[in-house]
Amino acid sequence: MMTRISSQFEKTRKVSGPRALQPSQWGMLCPSDTPEGEACGLVKNLALMTHITTDVEEEPIMRLAFMLGLEDVCLATGAEMYDHNNFMVHVNGMIIGLTRTPLHFVAKLRKLRRAGRISEFVSVYINHHHRAVYIACDGGRICRPLIIVERGQSLVTAEHVVLLRAGKMTFDAFLKLGLVEYLDVNEENDSRIALYERDIVFSGPGRTTHLEIEPFTILGAVAGLIPYPHHNQSPRNTYQCAMGKQAIGAIAYNQLNRIDTLLYLLVYPQKPMVKTRTIELVGYESLPAGQNATVAVMSYSGYDIEDALILNKSSLDRGYGRCQVMRKNVTMIRKYPNGTYDRLADAPQEENGGVQKRYDIIQPDGIAGVGERVDPGDIYVNKQTPTNANDNTAGMDGSVVASYRNTPMSYKSPVAGYIDKVLLTETENDNTLVKVLIRQTRRPELGDKFSSRHGQKGVCGLIVNQEDMPFNDQGVCPDSIMNPHGFPSRMTVGKMIELISGKAGVLTGKLRYGTAFGGSKVEDMSKLLMEHGFSYSGKDMLTSGITGESLEAFVFFGPIYYQVQHMVMDKMHARARGPRATLTRQPTEGRSRDGGLRLGEMERDCLIGYGATQLLLERLMISSDKFEVCACETCGLMGYNGWCPYCKTSQKVAKLTIPYAAKLLFQELMAMNVMPRMVLEDV
């Protein structure tokens, strides 16, 4: 399903106009779901009930228009065309005729659309400034459904809602009965839309024509998952829209039967205690992406500063935040043009009849068995390639094979895994593919990123034994502790209300609603807390697990839905020595290539500011691309082996150490007819 709209405007230009939220986007595009950075405001997402039209045939529409009394523009005189009482009629931008009664003509067309005689996505509207009636039936227009209001009354009644909830009516039935219709942006400008039933205007020029189905439908599918978003500072909702898409959870009912390149799964996903109507509509509860954590909002040691979270070790032992990482590894058993082909072989025998430890898990068919543990460096597919694979002299039947060399697949991850699945399949060229799915089970560790549904992200700063964690009068220990400094400047009041509603939901055994512009009221939730013997504010008296004394302040304490975002195991990287790039002889870049950590321009400037010249020399040359060259003191050009090819002498040739990148630059400049000369001095 397509839900994203990308503007063709240049992302590098810093113009606010195309990025701003336009009034015409109300209900059509989500006001919160847009990326940060250079694409901000240019990449947009559809609101919950938005529909993008497809092409509708225009010939029947044109014939119908003429049947309704439209006069052909080809037969009209100039005086008739410019008469102030006559309105031009356009179909998809093409003038087809004139009408003397535009309001009557538009009313008839709309009546036919509501009766289902023409497509529900045909748009009809009047522009009094242009003296024109526009009919649009082309594709690519954004439209959304609205309830029709006639004579000050909504056509959708309580009886219709009861039938809808009972499953006896569908949304399509509302369209066919003419109770609901789709309007595009242009027709919306020609309508009067009430937000709530109480806002309907019965008569006069501002008479209401339509009613919003639900105000929360102005948000998109991702922003609609946030509880109480109307209580948050708006950028926080935008941050959550980006982070919510990265949350680890369940992806499909067949997730354990498929082989994806990389798949992260939460082992124990849970429904949120505080849900929204959007969560029900999109089926989020069937495939959730998070867990309800009991959170204490307090400071605990110094390891919770800058949004870091303190996690309860016993909660992690019970499965909080536990993930499975499935990674696909593929190798191909090729057939070569000379008739030879790769093969899978049993583990090679040692001289003493044993097998190398790396090959321990290899079965007789050359592949590791399902369920086997794979340690770093272990071979799990023992592939062998013929040494004459690229030799065209062998017989085309592949009968002549000189010998085989080992080209096995070894496990490169630093953490052990398990063989989850093995699949053998064929490509179009009749080559055999061996797909091996390796599973790792991970539990949260220091540095893993968590986030609530309010754009409040943080990493795990400390894992504490349960006996050292604070607990309340009921003996409940929090799963995580959050620093209270995350609230004042972020102004995520929705998170505080989620805690109170979630706590009330736990005590009453019912899920609560935090739908935008509605949801369960704080007053009602606080009343429920008091009925069950808790403070109306959601605060509890906690006892220190270390000293056994009561804490001096009441602590905000309750369940908040948290999502696991990123794992530090996939990010961490260090290197002492390793591969270097062939061209520049500098360390390679990136974690996957065992690359170096770059000391960039800003870090260099910082070291210059401190005057650390020896450290600069060591980092930027000695540990990077140190290279010895011969340079002529006379002409200043590079030579080789103590010889200057330009001066034809070895008299005044000195050895010096420069970065290899500098030597490469000199040679590239010389290739462009620029002669860089080095001026040498004794030091």
Helix content: 10-25%
Which stretches are poorly predicted, pLDDT < 50 over at least 5 residues?
Answer: none
- Report the CATH C-level class of the largest domain: Mainly Beta
Report how far apart the termini are: 70 Å
- The domain count comes to 4
Write out the CATH superfamily name of the largest domain. DNA-directed RNA polymerase, subunit 2, domain 6
Number of helices: 14
Question: What general outline do the C-alpha atoms trace?
Answer: globular
Major sheet: size, sense and barrel closure? Answer: 6 strands, mixed
Q: On the 0-100 scale, what is the average pLDDT?
A: 91
Q: What fraction strand?
A: 15-25%
Known CATH architecture of the largest domain: Beta Barrel
Structural class: alpha+beta
In the CATH scheme, what's the topology name of the largest domain?
Dna-directed Rna Polymerase Ii 140kd Polypeptide, Chain: B, Domain 6
Which value, in Å, is the CA radius of gyration?
35 Å
Number of strands: 35
InterPro entries: DNA-dir_RNA_pol_su2, DNA-dir_RNAP_su2_dom, DNA-dir_RNAP_su2_hyb_sf, RNA_pol_bsu_CS, RNA_pol_Rpb2_3, RNA_pol_Rpb2_4, RNA_pol_Rpb2_5, RNA_pol_Rpb2_7
Pfam family, one: RNA_pol_Rpb2_3
Family: Belongs to the RNA polymerase beta chain family.
Keywords: DNA-directed RNA polymerase, Metal-binding, Nucleotidyltransferase, Nucleus, Transcription, Transferase, Zinc
Tell me what you see in this structure:
The protein folds into 4 domains: 53-211, Alpha-Beta Complex (Hypothetical Protein Ta0175, Chain: A, domain 2), CATH 3.90.1070.20; 229-247 and 265-321 and 463-566, Dna-directed Rna Polymerase Ii 140kd Polypeptide, Chain: B, Domain 6 (Beta Barrel), CATH 2.40.270; 324-388 and 403-442, RNA polymerase II, Rpb2 subunit, wall domain (OB fold (Dihydrolipoamide Acetyltransferase, E2P)); 626-672, DCoH-like (Alpha-Beta Complex). Helix 10 (493-508) packs across helix 11 (522-531). With 683 residues, the chain is α+β, with helices and mostly antiparallel strands. The longest helix has 16 residues, at 493-508. A hairpin with a 5-residue loop joins strand 25 (417-426) and strand 26. The strands form 9 sheets. Strands 3, 9, 10, 11, 12 and 13 form a 6-stranded mixed sheet that branches. The mean pLDDT is 91.
